Protein 1
Amino acid sequence: MNTPTLSRPVDRRDFLKFSAFAGGGLVLGFYLKSSGSATGAEVVKPVAGAEFKPNAFIRIAPNGVVTIVSKQPEIGQGIKTSLPMIIAEELEVSWKDVVIVQGDLDAAYGSQSAGGSRSTPTNYDEFHKLGATARTMLVQAAAQTWGVPSAECNASGTAIHHAASKRTLGYGELVAKASTLPVPAPADVKLKDPKDFKLLGTRITGVDNPKIVTGQSLFGIDTKLPGMLYAVYEKCPVFGGTVVSANTDQIKTLPGVKDAFIIEGTANTAGLMPGVAIIADSTWAAFSARKQLKVVWDEGKFANDSWDAFTSKAKALSSQAGGSTVLKDGDVDAAFAGAAKVITADYSYPFISHLSIEPQNCTAHYHDGKMEIWAPTQNPAAGNPMITQLLDIPAANITVHMMRAGGGFGRRLSADFIIEAAAIAKRVPAPVKLTWSREDDLHHDQFRAGGFHFLKGGLDANGKLVAWKNHFVTFGSMGVGRGGGAPSLQTKSGGSLDADQFPARFLTNYLAEQSVMECNIPMGPWRAPGNNVFSFVMQGFIDELAHAAGRDPLEFRLDLLSQKKSGNYNADRMTGVVKLAAEKAGWNPKRFPKGQGQGISFHFSHAGYIAMVAEVTVSKDGQLKVDRVVAACDIGAQIVNRSGAENQVQGSVIDGLGTMMFQELNIERGRIVQNNLNDYPMIRINDAPPRVEVHFLSTNYPTTGLGEPAIPPVAPAIGNAIFAATGKRVRQFPLSRTDLRWS
Amino acid sequence: MSKYTLQINGQSRNVDVAPDTPLLWVLRDSLELVGTKFGCGVGQCGACTVHLNGVATRSCMTTVSTVGRKQVTTIEGLSTDGSHPLQKAWCELDVAQCGYCQAGQIMAAAALLKENPKPADQEIDDAMTNLCRCATYIRIRAGIKRAAGIPIEGDAMNSMGAVPTVASLQEAVK
Ligand code: FES
Ligand code: FES
């Protein structure tokens, strides 16, 4: 097959880079600014750099097949389908003509991390421009071929049409011509009017579905390379523990075992922890040999940590002044003194695991000074700096293939499993797949931090909220902060209360303080970090205050939302979804008999405004059944893929419910007590509500993501409904800590 | 190591593995049938579900030495071309999020429908014990019903008509 090369001076506005594509065809590699600004008139060089990034590749083959590269990691959020839809929309291609391929980690793509529900908002506008620019060029190619004005041509169905002469040219036929055209000026590229969208807002099914339902190799753990060996890696159950010795000589004699060795590791619990690797000729041989492994650990100084001790300490801290002030408005003490009614409540939640269903794994092959990696990751670049630093492999010699991941939930933003695999592979003369057991996954997560909130609220004689105080006791570990300086206690993602957490800035008298307890437990982002628990606390206590005031919880909330004092919280958008949820659910808590109840909540996170109404039944013996959840979501102007969006919200509702009902890790002797799903239960189909109704409110704001923001309102809506049904207030996760029996 | 001849998806396959090797790892490592997934290794999650003589079985808890002449069906053998009604329903209703659990879900559902072609809602919930971490349970229920020809209440994909705008809602939320 000939491989034509195309060499010509680049256009002054070279945000489009033309290059040859093996096999012939038009390759439009687009390089756009990383900001959301209009497609820049400045020269953008097609090289890696913090300032500029290419956002996608479009390849159109002479046979009319349109290949779109998905640059983001696919972890179940549906990005591999939804982002290419945006290009396809503007490009006016029939979805059936589109092939999606997964891109590798490539500096030329810019950020490829999938976290914070940012994949959609950071790429949305630019993906429109990519598709529209390519479409404009195809229109020009056809117009020139026919000798008619471009304005008389229009694109649809992977073809350009000239209505007056009833002529049509398919994109495949236009490839050669389009490849010779200069890039149009941004002003000459017209984006589609949203009312003309054909794909966006419809339900497009996942591009990998056919592979998923037939069991084809797709996920990281499915990786198989010629001559590949299999590894397990045992780490100290106490975080920060180090290896003193291990019976590696004996392990090496076991069936199927090829090697066993100690890795010294570092103290970084998100990096390469010390441990013992076993390399074998099958997964099972490695798992079996591990049962014979005997390691003497130095458990270090955190070997006495326990959840019970942390709980007592938090309680003690609560009566002291907070270590730091998160936000102080007005004078809460004076306001409490003058209040008609003051109530207090303590809320808490434990450490939990992400439990992504595909255990952490990574395949790595070290050869010729190069490290090649196949990883189910949310953050494909995350491991590279440490691989360079610890294994002395320059970044240019590291290749990362992004594999579909069996769930992310924030877990795979960390690269510990990638770094381990690389460290092992560096010592093995063959490709090697590291597979964590489920026990490894549960014991060595980057956990969602537990926390304690000590709340106080004041109401005036009219039942109006006049003062709010929260002392948040959280966890941190010693480290150097972003600003440098001496080591101090650092909280991790989601472990710090933010100054804008509602109802902050909606009250004249507001105080939030924070104290940090030291631990060495690895902590990291868990789907909607911080928000997933703060919403439960704030929306629960707001509900308590509404009831204490004798006011309807919906009316109390709408009143509070009308009291904004400062900040960027968009109370109008929130009011919109609260009203929508209430309307669609038929808000009327009084219509339920005892044992049944309706609860409401709302939460802003990850740029999404979400409100929920839950209806529950609690039997007299305290068994909860969630009958119905109504979700109202404002994530801006455009739902990209309606099927994916609904799936995310429905899944979030059930995930949020399951987390509230079941998830809990206990800590004793510095280690996680639970081992596997038999003592760490997760929600199953029998506890999933029969009805989860999802409503979207389209508003004139940028389109944002939906992987996370529907999680936070779930637990408080259900907790508030439980209170309405039973009079029992849920202030702790998991639900087993609250006696829900009533008579 | 011991030699076994297994009946996998209608074919005889020879393997040489330790007798205590779970069928899961024989499928994945020795036979390169990776549709059967590892999730927990203790029989809890169901990602490793296969059929043994038509019965849904957790292959992580089934040692190779106990399989004998039993017919093993994996997701790769449920149909030759993805045309099993459950596979089609799963694609049409876009059940999967990450998709990792779904081969196991489909195998569990296939065994259910063989036994009980028109399961009631409660029977579906009782039979489907597999974990879906992405919590796609609403669409799993719908997928089973679609494959069984049972009408799905409302719309599995939650049809709510056009996305409302603020203006169109002003009336609604007053
Ligand atoms: S891997 Fe077999 S049940 Fe989880
Ligand atoms: S789709 Fe992800 S675990 Fe079921």
Note: The longest strand of chain A covers residues 465-479.
Protein 2
Amino acid sequence: MRARALGYVLAAALVALTCAAPGLAHAATPSSADLVEDPTAWDGQTIEFTGEAIGEAMSRGDEVWLHLNDDAYARGTIEEGGPLSGYNSGHAVVVPPQMAERVTVFGDHKHRGDLVRVTGVFSAACSEHGGDMDIHASALAVVERGHDVTDPVATGKLWALAITTGLALLTAGAYLARRRPY
Amino acid sequence: MFRPTLDDHKVIGVYTGKVVLGVGMLMLVPLVTALVFAEWDTAVDFGIGLMACLAVGFGLQAICHTERELRRAQGLVVVSASWILATLLGAIPFILSGHIGGMVDAVFDVMSGLTTTGLYLIQDLDHVSNGLNMWRFVLTFAGGQGIVVIALTFLFKGVGGGIYQLYAGEGKEDRLMPNVVHTARAIWLVSLVWLAVGTGALTVTALALGQEPVRAVLHGLWTFMGAFSTGGFAPQSFNTVWYHSVVFEVLCIIIFVAGSLNFAVHWAVWTGDRAELKRNIETRSFALTMALFVLVAAIGLARAGVYPDAVAFVRKVFYVVASAHTTTGFATIYSRATVTQWGPLAMIGLIGAMVIGASSASTAGGIKGFRVGVITKAFVQDIRRMVSPDSAVVISRYHHIKDRVLNDATVRSALAISVAFLTMHALVTMVGVYCGYPVVEAAFEGISAGSNTGLSCGLLAPSTPDGLKALYTLAMWLGRLEFMAVFALIGWGWSAVRGR
Ligand SMILES: [Zn+2]
């Protein structure tokens, strides 16, 4: 309850600030967790959101869907040696095609995606997109270019493979020997 | 209770070994996937997993070598023992991947896959290799078919009278044909045709939605496997929020509703008897309870005033309630939004849908429409008896493949299993509350596990206490095997100890 009340105060303050000085106002920067924890308070607000572009840009004519993860892995995937730090967390963003073109690397097993910052309006349940929670971006910048990630095989694993293979051959031999005794 | 002899243990060992070999064969799928995508590290992980399965599978068969055939009493124990070994061995690639917090989490994810639940503890899913992702979906698809049933179809020859027990132990008690192996093959035929058509439709849609061809094929295949097995795993952490498409959502609903139907109903429709869909006690029960829970969730959501227009409202409510009721677990809302947007009344609607679940002899979980239908009919029959003259004989009928007369034995076993489910749900909820979670959230998450649904309200996370994760793992297992096979294993263990 306290968090929600705080959210309303924050939202009200934002509105006041935006009305008072539209050119100077700096958009708030809620995390994906903040947004989903209190969607009502953020609904309709212009926010700034930064995250790693994941998967792909899904182009649908005059708009493109991006998914930006603002979790710890956006700064270092497990394959890069980043620590385990919980689930992924992110948000869906709708951007115009000419902005989406700037994003070129998308996060997957072999890539850490571009770190992308968008400014746009958050909807708790967007009426244009079937009630989806989304951000309609009006500005987009690539903060940090993504890159390839390699995942070399550890020598320890090769040893484990050799040992389990040996065991499998041994037991398979024993099995065959017992099935056909002579 | 029988006292197991050394030969009994040996027979169980041999057949469990065969199932473990089957699990090893399944690991070939992710292994090949990893090789195709040049994911060498993942390929080695699955190489180790495969060899471990072969070692255990052949080892068990060599040690327990016997010429005896499987008997009835041993069948259920083989099912339980196979599930335990499959879960432990299936966890190996998860642990080696580095994406999982520990043994408890890895076992949780494999059990969730095999039981077609869909909750997960894997971390940084969005950077997981295609090989490991493939394994998640192979687990869920194979688990839906029944891992023992798979081994039964391909690996067992000339099994004795215990074979039907193996088959029934995984909740597939409906025999379509006199021969159980033929029935298992018929189920495979139906499932593989659905696999081809469903994957094709989803892939074409994914292409149209803007995915690249390779990703569209993978997502099409994986979404199909997650949907048809009423599993609920999805390739990305966003689950089916990812696609933002009404066409994709409709396809998912068609596939997971199909997956939640009794295979006997599939077979009836397949062989030309379409009327079965309308007359079957389970499809009727499902339609009624679905309408009820859509209404409850809709009232809750209307009060919360979340969705701006009617189309969005219907789309969200129908998708998520259908996903809950078929015990799939796909969502088009973020997990925490269940609490922060949908609120307690809508959550209670979803909980009711999950508790009841879909059809027996399908991949779905929960109490099942058959039991709910039978218990309701028995209740109505009792009321009719009360208001009838003493001389009147009140008979109640239901339709499942053929018209049947409701008898007390059917009602009794339906009630027993239903009470077992409800007791488990109550206990799991209590433990969740004990761990400090709000009661509605504890009920939602615990029942999602025990009914093999997989919807999450955000309670479960890698940071959840290990005890609660382990309890959820047990609940998933008990729910999937409907208690009996697990209790048979416990009884076998007890009598083995006592016998010494
Ligand atoms: Zn929108």
Note: The mean pLDDT of chain B is 91.
